[in-house]
Structures are given as C-alpha cells and as structure tokens.
Amino acid sequence: MKDLSKHPCFNAEAKHKYARVHLPVAPKCNIQCNYCNRKYDCSNESRPGVTATVLSPLQAVHYLRALSEKMPDISVVGIAGPGDPFANPQETMQTLKLARQAFPDMLFCLSTNGLDLAPFVDEIADIGVSHVTLTVNALHPPTLAKIYRWIRYNRRVYRGEEAGQILLEQQLKCISLLKAKGITVKINTVICPRINDGEVEEIAAKVASLGADTMNCLPLYPVENTEFEYLQEPSKEMMKQIKAAIASYIRPMTHCARCRADAAGLLGHDNTEIMNMMGQFSTLVVNRGEERTRVAAASHEGLLVNLHLGEARKIYVFEQSRNGYHFVETRNTPPEGGGMERWKELANKTLIDCRAILVGGIGETPMRVLHENGIKVIQMSGLIDAGLDAVYLNLPLKTLCRSDYTRCGESCRGTGAGCG
After folding, report:
1. CB atoms within 10 A of CB 86
2. pTM score, two decimals?
3. Confidence grade of residue 407 (pLDDT, cut at 50, 70, 90)
4. Phi and psi (nearest 5°) for 355?
5. Dihedral of CA 289/291/292/293: which sign?
6. Domain 4-282: which CATH class?
7. CATH homologous superfamily for 288-419?
8. Which of 122, 148, 314, 376 has the greatest number of C-beta atoms within 10 Å?
C-alpha cells in the first residue's frame, strides 16, 4: 500500500517535505479550451500547458534517474501534458511502465480532461497510478460550449453543445471507474467569470456523489490570443467564497500552485536549475534496447513469421516470462503511403517497447530507420518461438529458417508501395 500522505498536491502537509516532477511526454491534445494557448513558454509562468521541451518516454526515464540523484525528496511522478496524456496514450503508458520499472516505490499520478481516459483505467490501475486529476468545468452542455471550441473523440471533431455533452459523459463515467479501482480522484475546475462561476457548487455536489475525494478551484489565467484573453481574472475574494461554498460537499484544495507540464521541485517552489537540466535530455540519443523488453513479429496468425513488413497490417507482440514466452497483444501498423514518416512512427510509437522485430522480409528504408532507433531486425520464416529464442537466448541465426524473400519487392504482392 502506497503512502498517500507523501503526495504534495493531495496533502497540504506534504508540500514542504516532498517534491514532485511532471514528465512532459504528451504534446497532443484532444480538446481546445478557450483559455489555453500552449504556444507560449516563459520560465516565469506557472500554468498548465507550458513546457520548455517535450521528452520521449525513454528520454523521460533517463531524466528522472538524473533528477532523483540531485533531488532525493521526489515522491511523485506525474504526467500532465503539455497536451492531454490520453491524446498521447502510447507515450503516456510507455512512460508509466518504464518509470514504474525504474522506480517501484514512487507515487504516480495523471492529470487529464478525461475524454479518452476510460479505455485505460484498468491498465493505469495495474501499473499502480494512485492519483488522477480530472478537469470538470461545467455540468451543462450550453456552458461547456462556451468553454471549449472543439473536442476530438473517436477520430471525429465535435463542436458546440454536442461536444460538451460527449465530454461531460466521459468525465462523469471516469470518476466512477477510477473510484472502483481505488484511485484517489481530484477535480480541477477553472473558474471563468460570467461563464461557469455560478455552477461550481453544482459541480462539487455531483462529483462528490460519484466519490471524488477533493476539488481544486483554479482562477482563470487570461492568456494572450485565446477566446478568454479579455475575461477578468477572478478576485481573491471570489475564489475564497467559492472554496467556502464547495466545502459543504467536498474537501477543497487550498494550496494549488497551477503547475507547468515540466514542473520539478516542491509545490510552489519549482527548482529552475533542475528544470533547465531537462533540455540536455531532450536531445539525448538513448540506447533503446536497454529499456525495450518485448519482441514483435510480422505474422498472419501469430504462430509463424510469414509476412514482409511492408505487407503487415498488424504485428504480434511477445515478451519473456518465467514460464517461457507470453503473447501481449496485436498492434496495427501505420497506414501505407507515409514514406519515411511511416517507419518513424512504427519505430517510435508502435514498437516503442520492442527491442527486435521478426519479419519475412523488409525494405532498405524501414531497415535503416529501425536500426537507427535501436530495434534489431531478424529476417526469417518459421516459428515465432524460434525467433524469440534468437533474441532472448542469443541463439545464432543459422539455427533459424531464413526468409524466402531475397530482395525487397522481388516476391511482394502488389507494387511494393507499402515500403515507401
């Protein structure tokens, strides 16, 4: 059982003792808030959506290792953007898994709008995420339509009240799902004068009824070149009254520091020297094999290696376990026609946790991209288990049945454009 008293964002007494770090690995967002502009980064600004740089999952873990040596009082690792963690699910989940392996005793938390969270609740609970912050700004679609310009849900863009209704349904559902997994839930509400300030008590009552643990009311921070740049920031007196009002329903958070997506240090006292250190990790070329533990295979049915990589619409992913090899899941490969970007996406996203891939054949371009990203390519045909033996047990390739493909395109079906 994790000691939840060491989380400075959820426990005011911990903020002077324990530090937290936000790993900025999630640049994309699935909604457009009318108070948010993530283009600006000023080292003097402390607000969500701001970061000096974006890290890959592997870079983030290397940064976290270096950070823990210089700042031993870190108790919490969080992901809060600069976009939304679940608009970047592969990066988010890979970062959590790698960080959990490296730091099994840390607390892990996420901050999200909740739109795309539901499919990942079971997985984040299994990883050990103990705290999740959800931003809920209203309970009525007409109000939400004023706050959000659009949302992107299930690959479709929605606007107006329809967008508000979809977002709200997902947020409220996720509170219940998270609580069912024993995860502590904090609600963030951005107070926008004359927009949602009259609905905050209603929000507090509703989220409390669903089991939320605490609520954080943040004053609007007017940002240049946003719809709400001319709205007045709520006064301290208004915020005091709102926090007093919601206390009848839910425990209010009273010590929010409105953190950046790359915050590091004690709450409200970010260590800028440490944060500046992150820049050297954003350009770090890491040996990805040292962190990747799985192996992929291009296969029709998941038993044999029998597909050219350019023909594979999905790959099968395996990992080594105490009882042999364990099938993890199938993953879709990036669509054809993307050229070099297709293979970069395959290496950096689809195969982010794989040290090798077993293929029946492969073109020169994907071969080069995969090698440059630390992924070993084994060309063969036959049982996948034989290829896994080559990777995990270091058996020589001569024990394998080599691929029938002798040159890219020679025996491909179609034009071979899938390698382009």
Report:
1. 24
2. 0.64
3. very low
4. -90, -20
5. positive
6. alpha beta
7. Dinitrogenase iron-molybdenum cofactor biosynthesis domain (3.30.420.130)
8. 148
